[in-house]
Each structure stands twice: as C-alpha cells, then as structure tokens.
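Z., the sequence and structure:
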Amino acid sequence: MKSLCLSFIAIIVLLCALKTSGESYYDDYSYKDYESSEDSVTDISYPATTIQTSSDLTTEGKVIHIGDPLTKELKCPKNCKCSDGFYLVDCSHRNLIEMPKNVPYNTVQLNMSHNLLTKLDVNDLMNCTELRQIFLQENRIETIVNAENFARLPFLHQINLSRNALKPLRGDEFSHAKSLAALLLTNNQNVVAANVPIIQAPKLKTLNLANCSIDQFSDNTFQNLSSLVALYLDNNPLDLAKSMDAFNALINLRTLSIPTVNRDEALDLCRNLNAIDIIHLSLETHDISCFLFTTGSTYEESLIPSMKVPTDAPSTSTEQTASLANSNATETMNNDTNKGTAYDQMCMIYMIISGLALLLVVAILMGFCIIGSRRFGTEMFDRKRSYRKYYPGNLTVDNQNYEAYVKEDLTPISLSDEFESSSR
C-alpha cells in the first residue's frame, strides 16, 4: 500500500514538472497594448537556442537589459511596437519614409508594411543578425540597394515585397541571400526584365509573381531557380506558347498556378516539368493532373475538380493585404512552433515512460522487501518457538518441567529453578 501511494505521488510530481517546463517554450507570438514609463526596465536572460516570447508589448523608447555580453541594452525603435524581448518589431502603418536605424539585433520578424519607403537599403538591416522574416508590402519601393549585405543576414528566409513599385530586377538582388526560401513579388508591374534571369537565389522554394502584368518569359528567366518548388503566376496575361522553354529549368517544380491553359499547352507543360503533378488553374473550376495526362489518359480524363474557387484580380484593399501578411506570418510561426511542440511531446513521452519504468522497478523492489521481511519474521518466530520447545533452559523435552513451561505462556525456566528441582 505504501509503495502504491509513493508511486502515485511521484507520477503527479513528474507530470506537474513536465507541464511547467513545457509552458515556457513556443508560446504564440502576439501583441497587446502595454502601458509603462520609458524608464521601466525588464530583466530577462538571453536565449541561446530557443526563442521565448510573451504577449506583452513594449512601447516606444522602453529599455531592456539582457544577458548578452556584447550588448547591454536594447530599445524599441521610435514609432514601432515590440514584443517582450524584441523578437517581433511592428512598424507598419506609420507613414515612415525610411527604415528605423536602431532595430534590435535579435529581431526575428520585422514588419515595415503600409509605409512610404521608396527603397530597400539592406545596410539598414545589418544590426538584425537574427532576422528571419521581413514584411515590406504596400510601400513605394523601387530599388534594392547594397544587396550584397544580404550575406550578413544568414537566417533570412522570407521577404514580402508585394504591392510596391519595383523596377525590373537585374537578377542579382537576392543572390547573397543564402537562406531565402520564400519571395513574394505580387502586384509589382514590370518586375520581370526581358532576357535577364529574374532571380539568383540558391535555396528559393516559393516565388509568387501573381498580378505582375507578365505576358512572356525569356528562355533564361528561371535558369538560376532549379531549387524552386512552387511558382504562382495567377492574373497575368501570359502567353504560354512563347514562354514554354522558360520552364525547362524548373526541374523540381511541384506546384504551378496559372490563370488558364489549353490542351496542347497543358501537355507541353506536363512534359517539360518532370516533378509536377497538378497544374492549378485559378480562372477555371478544374485543375489538370499531369500524372494522368502523361500516362495515357485523355485531356478530359485528366481534369480534376479545383480545390479553390475561381479568383479575380487581387484587391488593393489595405485590410486584405494586412490580413494576408498576418496569415503568412502566423503560418510560418506555427510551423516553427509545431516543430518545437513535436520535439517537446517526444521528450515528454520519453520522460513519462522512463519515470514509469523507474517507479515499476522501485515498486518491485519494495514488494520483494516486504515479502522478504515477512518471511524473515516468520522464520525467526518459528526458530524462537523451536528453541523454547526443544531447548528450554538447555533441558530436553523429557524434562519434567516441560509441561509447566508450556502452560506458563512459553516463559523460559531459569537455570536456578532447574537446579533447585534436581536437588530435591
């Protein structure tokens, strides 16, 4: 009974410890108004490998002391809002004409959307060595300068430049962004130059060129994008017949979204794109299965129901753009959170199993101890009875006082009494 109680208490303590340790990691990124004086100070420890966040927002000018020996204090930039720890910096909807100069070095996500920026100067981001995402949609950005300094942002994997005024790209703007995986260029008119590779990004996986007034691709447009997995070309007046050879370089493309396509163009696309399965048609109620089309099925048999409703040209609504940006950020953060959550769950399961195994071993040992102690007590009792029965006072059972010895509640007879009896 004692072992069961101890086991139950140990299980409760173990589960409480696991729950407490798990709650401090991978909290959702969120913002909430936070009122405090500019002189208020918050002490936290600098995270070595994980990003810890909370829902509180620091206000403009608030100072934080951290444990990093290279930096004694950080400030939230003027006209911006920051999460506790300055991992998220939101400077959107502020009519800013330039990037803040004092963005904290440990910023993970920077939101500069819905401002009046006319250029992206990468030098303004040199302090943000931990930057993963930057949102620049709904500005007036025309050019990207000092692009070679993208090399000093080793973790940057997502850039949103939608709804700007980008001039035709030279092709080398993102060549130094070694970790760039997602680039959104929607609603930038004339962003694609003729006879120039649009982008050189060795690890780019997703490229969105929807609603960019693209009517034709040159043969070398995608020549540096062999790693591309998803390409979105919705709402472009694209002449696929003149652009077919451009797709030959996309050897790993799996997702292609275009407005519409005819029978012959669909067959050529399916043959040129070896890794693709389904071509999404944004202006149709059906998609095309390249797997079926290239394995003997007719065009009609290769048509499959579309997973989405037909879409018109993207709206210029600020609210819709902000919602899209927030959903993109939330999805990316949730992916990171899910990875961490899965790891935490595996660790928790391992710890619980280890704890239960340990408790089982302890319970077994305690059971052996209890059983052994009972057997030992019984054996000692039997030995005592045997001693009293067969060797009372070193006298044999033939002793005439044996019956008296038994009747007197097994009380041994002293040697003096025995001598007195024998002398009589």
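The CA atoms of residues 60 and 76 lie 5 Å apart. The chain has seven helices and 18 strands.

Let me know what you think.
H.
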